[in-house]
Amino acid sequence: MSKPLKCIMICAAAMVIIAVAVLLSKQKHEPVRPSEEVGSLDGPDCTIVSIADVEPPTTEAVTDPAPPSESAEPVAATATNEPTASEDEIPSWVEWQSVATDFADGFAVLKDRKATLYSDASCETVLWTGDEDWAFQDMVVKDLDRDGAEEIIFLLWKRGNYGRSKPFWAEEDTDRLGQHIFIYSYDLERPIRMRAIWMSSETKFEIDSIASGKNDMLLLNVRKHGPQLWRWKDFGIKYVENAEPSKLRLLCAGDNLIHLQLLKQDRSGAALYEKIAPVIREADLAAINLETILVEDDGAVSSYPRFGTPIGVGESLANAGFDVMNLANNHVLDKGSYGVDTTIRFLQELGIRCFGATQTTGYTGSYKDSVAFVEKNGVKVAFLGYTYGMNGLKCPAEFPYMVETLKDKERMIRQIEYARERADVVVVYAHWGQEYETEPNVIQRGMAKFFAEHQVDIVIGSHPHVLQKYETVTDPSGTHETLVYYSLGNFISGQDREGTRDGGLADITIEKDADGTVRIREYSMQKTKTIANEEGYWVEIVTENPN
What we know:
Elements: H1 3-29, E1 99-103, E2 106-111, E3 114-118, E4 126-129, E5 135-142, E6 151-159, E7 177-186, E8 194-199, E9 207-212, E10 217-222, E11 226-232, E12 237-242, E13 246-256, H2 270-273, H3 277-282, E14 285-289, E15 294-295, E16 309-310, H4 312-320, E17 324-326, H5 336-349, E18 353-355, E19 372-376, E20 379-387, H6 409-422, E21 425-431, H7 442-453, E22 458-462, E23 470-474, E24 481-485, E25 490-492, E26 502-512, E27 518-533, E28 536-544
Parallel strand pairs: 13-14, 13-25, 14-17, 15-16, 17-18, 20-21, 21-22, 22-24
Antiparallel strand pairs: 1-2, 2-3, 3-4, 5-6, 6-7, 7-8, 9-10, 10-11, 11-12, 13-26, 19-20, 23-24, 26-27, 27-28
């Protein structure tokens, strides 16, 4: 061989060696995300993400996962050689949860430390089972990575730091028993539908349970440190903050009863609410009973007995700070379907939610249509409204459920259940009772028990035009309390009978823990008064907590 050719071959070989070395170095220092095909029916083939150096609380990110095995192929759900997480070695403080919930196109069940995904709630056809050598402690379903599809998150116990295939730089695994967090997605379009998208190595802190946290966060209940919120970011979950309860301050007002003399100084009614507006705006959420319907046509404006209130009053209420308005009362049909349609359309344009009645546009008659949902500070509140009647008027024949009433209990139960399934707190405005009576009557008390039995959280009473007491009512099982304000009186009106110028604001603080537990933390009543003199009318706070 000639000397020049020999030199060329030596140089080429050296270049190959250098290229291989650079590639290996890059692989070692730049971990790769698991491929989309990683996973199997009985457990993932991808390796595990380390959070060994994360001690709560911390804002350090969980490290990126190790690359998957080069031979990540589907594996049938069979027993493995991995040592089993035996019962006697798992700490005694562990509480094993039982969970059953919809997930993707199936039904996920966690029971007796085993996790299974079935095709439906009949639990007959199995789509996936968790590794039989793992002990599953808890489970939650949530769209954690904000991609529009829910993931299933497991808290479990297993041996070893890695999955079925450890990273190429790890010479050996350990058989130590540890606690782990695994996250799976489910995709019908992929050969391996149940796919591990993130896995943690043994956690260095003890986790009692996991739950869906507020917004897009995962709640970890960490022993000795308390609840913590973690969020999916980039690739993996990262500590956000210690989980403090969310709080919502709710103010509810009684009857907004607009006699025409109230509008002499201002057709829009803005002056009526000017002094009390700062109090209303301080609340996170404010609701009121819109006793008199709104109209656009000047010819439709009227006072007692068939009210028609200028539409500008609705805007003034919104500017004062009210977010939600009840329409289910005895004057809602004073202007027929025209009044209902005008009121709902106008208030919706202002961003105000109405409940207790439905407009003719898009009318379906569904019990769902007259329920309003509002979410503030991570607390979702459902509002429902019912009236004893409409002063002898009836809903149009083609719109029989335009207004919700207290007479159709079967429909009410369906609405309440619908609201409870979708909200943290259920509030009912009940237009009931005897006018000008300061004590709740038998019907009010009976309906209060009905609402408690069906686990309504708060009942706001209107119609008597005077104040009545408030109290908690317990359901027959003794497990649920309903806060009932029997009557908040008039928020504002032109009435001058004794007690009719006195009103109340139900002042309620709702607290929601990071794990979703909701409670009424505080409640009281702020007393209001309608002032009438030569300057005009307005409503103002008299004193707080009169009880």
